[in-house]
TrEMBL record:
Origin: domain of life: Bacteria
Gene: tesB
Biased composition (Low complexity): 1-14
Lipid metabolism is among the record's keywords: yes
Record's keyword annotation contains Hydrolase: yes
Protein name in UniProt: Acyl-CoA thioesterase 2
Family that this chain belongs to: Belongs to the C/M/P thioester hydrolase family.
A molecular-function term among this protein's GO annotations: fatty acyl-CoA hydrolase activity
UniProt cross-references to InterPro entries, sorted A to Z: Acyl-CoA_hotdog, Acyl_CoA_thio, HotDog_dom_sf, TesB_ACOT8-like_N, TesB_C
């Protein structure tokens, strides 16, 4: 499971902070493990330090996707992935990624990636890739009357003044600028109690032109706020005492080309919550109104008994 809840106490971090965009690019630059192979093709990645010392779920999603991309013909683009978070990852240890080539057909390729730490998988993912093709076209319409991202406060504006390691990590270390359209849930739950959430997001710095890097980075960012649509109707915020939140799985579909260094609108909703689990779905639009990706995730949400 990929943990979301901050710890009650987190150690302070010293030293200069690295540029978050450069950190993201380092995370997605996997090594080939000096040629080591089993029945899988092996890659190795690092982790960014977290106050909780647990690996951010979006990071291991993006790295697993990059590992799979390394084994597919460059002409085939990822169009879907389905992943399960199996264990919490340790951000102080490297992650080994093993890729199996499940199928290479005339138009589609399928890959299975396992992310390992201490010899056991922390994530299992299957991704599918396709040669470019033409066909029928339609999409959901982007919501109207959404405020411009420039008019909304950034996470730095909201949390940058707090001298707490979690607040400072969210404000300064994340490689994405996240701007909530609804009242953010960092410290309180105000505004609508509908099971909906929406944010503008883009990378803090420019990204290389490699389309695969943008697709992987979008997978990274897609895990940030999706579960907030589950928390809103219940009056919960991220600092709810005793609350435990973890991503259980993650599915994603890429529909159209995307650049993560341009503003993207991430519209989220939760159709159901029960059994200490909630389901959330998201649609990601570029600023021109093109639906570039869709996301679904189930999360565990546990709160103390009254």
């Amino acid at each position: 499971m990929a943990e979301h809840a901050p710890p009650a106490e987190a150690p302070a971090e010293g030293g200069p902070r690295k540029d978050p965009t450069a950190t993201l690019l380092d995370l997605l630059d996997l090594s080939s493990a000096e040629g080591a192979q089993t029945d899988e093709e092996i890659f190795v990645g690092t982790s960014v330090r977290q106050p909780s010392r647990r690996v951010f779920g979006g990071q291991v999603l993006a790295q697993s996707l990059v590992a799979a991309m390394r084994t597919v013909e460059p002409s085939r683009d990822v169009h879907s992935m389905h992943a399960y978070f199996l264990r919490a990852g340790d951000a102080d240890q490297p992650i080994t990624f093993g890729v199996q080539r499940l199928r290479d057909g005339r138009s589609f390729s399928a890959r299975r990636t396992h992310a390992y730490q201490n010899g056991v998988p922390i994530l299992s993912m299957i991704a599918s890739f396709q040669e470019p093709d033409d066909g029928i076209v339609h999409q959901d319409t982007m919501p109207a009357d959404v405020p411009d991202p420039e008019s909304l406060p950034s996470t730095v504006d909201l949390l940058g003044g707090f001298d707490h390691p979690v607040a400072r990590a969210w404000a300064f270390d994340r490689p994405f600028d996240i701007r909530h359209i609804d009242a953010p849930l960092y410290l309180s739950n105000e505004g609508s109690r509908e099971p909906r959430n929406a944010v503008w997001m883009r990378s803090l710095g420019p990204m290389p032109d490699d389309p695969d890097l943008h697709r992987a980075a979008l997978a990274y960012a897609s895990d940030y706020t999706l579960l907030e649509s589950i928390l809103r109707p219940h009056g919960l915020s991220w600092i709810q005492p005793g609350m435990s939140v973890a991503s259980l799985d993650h599915a994603m579909w890429w529909h159209r080309p995307v650049r993560v260094d341009d503003w993207l609108l991430y519209v989220q909703s939760s159709p159901s919550a029960s059994g200490a689990r909630g389901l959330a779905a998201g649609r990601i639009y570029n600023r021109s109104g093109d639906l570039v990706a869709s996301v679904a995730q189930e999360g565990m949400v546990r709160i103390p008994s009254a």
